[in-house]
Design a protein that fits this description.
It comes from Chryseobacterium endalhagicum. By secondary structure, the protein is of the alpha+beta class. The chain has one domain: Beta-lactamase. Helix content is about 40%, strand content about 15%. The chain is built from 11 helices and 12 strands. The strands form 3 sheets. Strands 2-1-12-11-10-9-8-7 form an 8-stranded antiparallel β-sheet, sandwiched between helices. A hairpin with a 4-residue loop joins strand 7 and strand 8. The protein is globular.
């Protein structure tokens, strides 16, 4: 008996759709169980599988409102901003503005003067993979001074003092997480494009992808979630300032799924750039790093992952290019253990 190609295609579509629905139900069940155990923590999750989108959310925007958190609710994505910045860096490579192995010296603002023994040593890829050896911002001190807005008073003068007084690169070539590194990457982008970081990310990511819930300087919107510290106290969203490329973008599950969809498509500008960011530029016994991403591998999977924590919210994003899925988890409380446990459970029980 002959089977038409159209019939086979229909069967494959139905099978793929049913498989995706099954995955979404399992993820929703895991998220629902977590919310029942932790009803004080609001959550929004977006998942994409073979270009099909799925969402689940629980909780309210704030204690006084009846408005529920949904896929469009605004969260601080915190350090997930770094993968947006690294994608912009990779786009600058494809635009022939920079090369990853270029030294940073000629791209820094004039206020920054590297000491002679540090010149022509730090590469752009070193900044993006956290191995530059530059000193970082003292967050503990800043939090003690202002627990609501610890980074708001950081200026170019603040950063110039740190960089210009650096006489030795501590652990150069070894992984050491760096906010100042991604702040410098933002300034390198400003140098090569002649625009502000805000203008660049809007023009090259937010507007092309129609990400209506991804905000920078102005985030006073009705669908904004409330941020909570680990003790449940209310935290302010971080205000926009010079450290923005390292962690100050606000977004939603729906917009981050839109970004994931573009990243997983090798034909898009973001997808082509993402492939550049996925190349291993740092490796030791504990980790592999691309540009901004942790790269995690097992017997049959390669996962690209980035987490984020503000003072009052936690988030994590990851994707598997070969199996064509991605997931974003957003919490309205700073709770890095919960977000990691959720991802681990979803991966082990559903995605692996």
């Amino acid at each position: 008996m002959k089977t038409s190609s159209k019939f086979l295609a229909a069967l494959l579509f139905i099978s793929s759709f049913s498989f995706g629905q099954n995955i979404s139900k399992k993820i929703d069940s895991i998220i629902n169980d977590n919310y029942k155990k932790n009803p004080e923590v609001g959550i929004s999750v977006g998942f994409i599988n073979n270009n099909e989108e799925y969402y689940t959310a629980h909780g309210k925007l704030n204690a006084e409102s009846d408005s529920k958190i949904d896929k469009n609710s605004l969260f601080e994505i915190a350090s997930i901003t770094k993968i947006l910045t690294s994608n912009l860096i990779a786009q600058a490579v494809t635009d022939h503005k920079i090369k990853l192995d270029d030294y940073i010296d000629g791209f820094l603002p004039k206020a920054y003067i590297l000491q002679e023994n540090l010149r022509n040593k730090i590469k752009i890829s070193d900044l993006a993979s956290h191995q530059s050896g530059l000193p970082d911002i003292d967050f503990a001190k800043l939090i003690a001074q202002d627990p609501q807005q610890p980074v708001h008073k950081i200026t170019e003068e603040t950063l110039a003092a740190i960089i210009n007084n650096c006489s030795e690169l501590k652990d150069y070539g070894k992984y050491r997480y760096s906010t100042i590194g991604y702040t410098l990457l933002g300034q390198i982008l400003e140098k090569v494009y002649g625009k502000t970081y805000d203008e660049i990310i809007r023009a090259k990511i937010i507007k092309p992808l129609h990400m209506k819930n991804t905000l920078t300087k102005d985030f006073n919107v009705k669908n904004r979630t409330t941020a909570h510290n680990p003790e449940g106290g209310i935290q302010e969203f971080f205000k926009w300032n010079i450290t923005a490329p390292a962690g100050l973008v606000k977004s939603s599950a729906s917009d981050m799924v839109t970004f994931l969809k573009a990243v997983l498509n090798k034909e898009t500008v973001m997808g082509k750039a993402a492939i550049i960011t996925e190349k291993i530029v740092y490796k030791d016994q504990k980790r592999e790093m691309g540009l901004g991403f942790n790269i995690v591998t097992d017997e049959s999977n390669t996962i690209y992952m980035k987490s984020g924590d503000s003072m009052g919210q936690s988030s994590i994003i990851c994707y598997n290019r070969n199996k064509n899925w991605g997931i974003i988890i957003l919490l309205d409380q700073r709770n890095s253990k919960m977000r990691q446990d959720l991802l681990n459970t979803i991966y082990d029980k559903v995605l692996k």
